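Dear support,

I submitted the protein below through the web form. The confirmation email said the job was done, but the results page showed an empty box. After a refresh the structure appeared. I'm attaching both so you can tell me whether what I see now is the final result or a partial one.
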Amino acid sequence: CPSVWGDVALIPFASLLFAVLLNMFLIPAAPGIEVRGLGEMFPLNGPSWSLFFEYIGNILYALFIRRLPTKGLAVLVFLAGCGLASFAIFGPLGDLCVGFSLTGTEFTGGSLRLLFSFSAGLLLSRIFKPVRIKGAFWICGLSVVALLAVPRIGGAEHLWMNGIYDTLCCLVFFPLLVYLGASGKSTDKYTTRICKFFGDISYPLYMVHYPFIYTYYAWVKNNNLTFEESLPGAAAVVLGSIVLAYICLKLYDIPVRRWLTARFLKPGNKV
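What the results page shows now:
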């Protein structure tokens, strides 16, 4: 959409190829050299930004986080939560929709998101004791819909108001939903298979859906389609993303993980 990020068709092929190579090796692009003009770290596949931070999280885990006692980990979670809340409430954006760029504000916000969510997940895994919750799936599902349906609060004059809401969601509601969801149990084999399928494809689906969305955007924009006219394309995006994710899971993800496990996690090998 030229009105949003310029005419991408005018980008030199060499620049596009360079962007592809950067994305393939998960090397973030600095503002000014990426091809869409939005300052993104990974302009050709936006969700890769979170993988970049996850790699940082894994490095931090290997270096010192895994060695922290539970109380020390709780302190890290508290400090990261305070930093995240301060950024959301007192920062320049009034939200936590950050981490997509190497600019100071974006990278700071993304780092705080990583430190809290990563360490909070580890802490939860250490102290988690499941409780019996009837209808955990419906409680969690409807809660997510309700939380995400809330429009931005406060406007440009009161950014702190939306910052408080984002803080409550990320520091309180979302961890609670993870706890409730982990406590839930499927009731039959059919439901278990469905849950396992969607759990298996969740990661590859996250990584492959954006090219479909880019294509869909261009199709709607170039043909001036109404919402109703674009519905078949939207359905194709959903189905196509799921199919491609499943193919990637079976032909790439599982075989590669099996090879890495056999190669590096043999008895006697230390990682």
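Response: this is the final, complete result; the empty box was a page-load delay. The chain has nine helices and no strands.
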